[in-house]
Amino acid sequence: MSTGVAAGLSVRRELGTQDCGRAGPTLLVLAGIHGNEPAGVLAVQRVLAHLQQRDVELRGRVVALAGNLPALADGRRYLARDLNRGWLPAALQALHERDPASDSPEDGQQRDLLRQFERVVTTARGPVVFVDLHTSSADGPPFLCLADTIDNRDLALATGVPIILGIEETIDGASLEWFSSRGIVAIAVEGGRHQHPDTVGNHEALLWLLLDHLGMVPAAAAQPERQREHLKKATAGVPAIVEIAHRHAITPADRFAMAPGFSNFQPVQKGTLLAHDQNGEIRADYDCRMLLPLYQALGDDGYFLARPVRRFWLQVARTLRRWRLDRIVTWLPGVRRDPQDPLTILVNPIVARWFVTEIFHLLGFRKERKRGDRLAFTRRWSLPENARLSRW
Ligand SMILES: [Zn+2]
Question: Which residues, chain by chain, have CB under 5 Å from ion ligand 1?
Fold first, then answer.
């Protein structure tokens, strides 16, 4: 078999389960929710094969699922709609109420995945960790996206792979959402370019590091030093943690075309030509880093721009959240709690303009949207059992 990734992968939903009956976390791996991203499928198959063939003593359980089966078979991102959207409660309710006879291929896939997610979560005997494996159309190092909770940050930082904060909140209804909204630790992994020969190995190294950090396999099986070395090379020169500063959303009517040659995390100077659309040139407004430039036909994100976060601010965030300062954020002028939702605060942007975004981000309030003349910021939560994740 070549090291490259072939298009067109015929697999079953359940890629495999490994469970030796010992107590511990459940690592649930989803691969190929985008059908043109088979690298994650191959990586988790390799890890499962290794666990089985070497008879590795596992604590807890590894469950691996394939995402969009017909799209994987076709080597396309999706057939009728993006399966990595539509996981918010309202969309799930609509799916539930719709007649399955009128399902698109992705509707059927989503129904089946939902059954699998429920099954895995309800049969878990310890905390669940969800990992969603992706690849991208541009070259670049691997990186992680996650809902901004301290438990998610801790797990992600333990891998040494760069983290992007804030991307998860800009994309409504990714599969990560289903888990994050239940307080489950959940991480999306971009492993590299779809067809790059190193991409499968990047995903594989990351899965071993997670198994190691979660104490699920002996170090002799995970070889954490080797995996860390592999990922260190793959991510050389990339800041450990960046924050999304801008998402360029697009529709087909925009006739968006990314300027050629951008890769993930590439430094971009103010004024650099980024793309064209029907209104002409699009240039960078400030110095930043490029993320997820769109070099494929399908997608509703043209690109993202990010800025590095200093480690100092990570520690500040940890301390503020440990003190649960989010509970008294409503003492600030122009800020009050949403009476319907304790995780959401409503901000009067005129009164609170000077501190709005940065302070709320530090406290974990990242999801931002307009509600009337107020800005609504929502914070994620994490199940108390997740605190045990680094102690198994
Ligand atoms: Zn993807």
Answer: 34, 37, 134
